[in-house]
Amino acid sequence: MDILLSYVEPVVIVTNVANALFDTALLMVVYDRLNGTTSGNSDQAQKEIARFYMIYNMIYSLAPLLTTVLLGRWADRRGQKVLLVVPLLGYFLGRLLLLFTDIFQLPVSVMYGSAVINGLTGGFPAYWSGINAITALRSEAARRSLRLNILEVASGMAGLLGSVVSGHFFLVKINNQHGLLLICLCLTLYLLSLLYSAFILRYPTVCPQRRLPTEASNLSLRRYSTEMILLFTCYLLYDLGVTGGENIISIFVLKPPLSWDAVWVGYGKAACYIMFLTSFLGVLNLSRCLGDSSLVLMGIISNTAGFTTMAFVRQNSLYFIARSMMLFSCIPMPTIRAQLSKQMEEASYGSIFAWLQSAVALTDVIATVVFNNLYAASLQWSSNISLLLAAAVCCFSTIPIVVYSWRLNKTDYSQIPGTDCAQRLGREELNDFSDECSTSSMSD
Q: Does the keyword Transmembrane helix apply (predicted)?
């Protein structure tokens, strides 16, 4: 029973269903409110929505930078529980504001406060770094890529479920208002996830950090710092393209020629979440014959092709064709995280993943500002240029992973930190022994 209670998948599933419900609720509340204030002018409403999400996402991404790294260090010393409980509490309290906004017809700018509350409690960066740290601590290095991809598929399937039902729940009226049932269900799921994380989930113990000899530590640090920089660069470039492209897609589908309503928005998000399942199946079947770097490259190419096709979507059917081309696009991020975890001490997982997610949060801000402003500026003459730029950025992210793979193939020493130093020391001892033998022979 304790083994079952040690899995984080229940937290991931419940939280991601809640996230999917909240995303649809927020988008439709903002769209209905801003569409009403612009007298039904579609282009003007698109610009207002893009501006709202630009500010909201900037706050949502920047605010966690103040707390995520501190929570990560605290977690390395006291346990990973803090990286789940504190952010989930922030999720619940911050997104409670959407309920008040809908009930009392408050201005949508109130939701900026939701992003602040969520961010100051660590937000998604702290939450997801905690999930990854716990999973990495409970998995063997050989199976870590698969284990982290299982997390992604659990997250994706939960999002799929939430997205499919979210549009239908939004249309249910309570007190002659849309969205109340959807928001209440979302908050209930956040509360359940918080209670499970706080009182039921069993957390791994934090082991003291093992120290290598100084010489071995310096040698391994020089080697692994370069490789970790390459992995970080690939991860952040890919995240920049994916975040920018997905932000534009979520707005693009609301305007003609697609003109989606809440139900179609839910279906579109569901198609997006199916990519988690197809990516997991790809890892499950192809990891036997392909290495981690090859899997990452395959995922990047898949996403690049999908964004390029999405830029020319004019019909619903073509949208889903573009999504089908992105079937492996969720492979790169968990696989890169697995590669990173194999090159650091277990006692550093919380801090390193917290730094990674903080860098991702900053990258998301850059993506939001650049792509949303470009989309608003190019709406009249070429609205697809933002998606083509996203595809190009994703394509550029192949360069660091190719260099990383080349470095791994080029090296002929062991993957264990300090082994190259030990081998060199062994050679020195062998030479000393040979010198002693020679001296002994000469004396005889």
A: yes
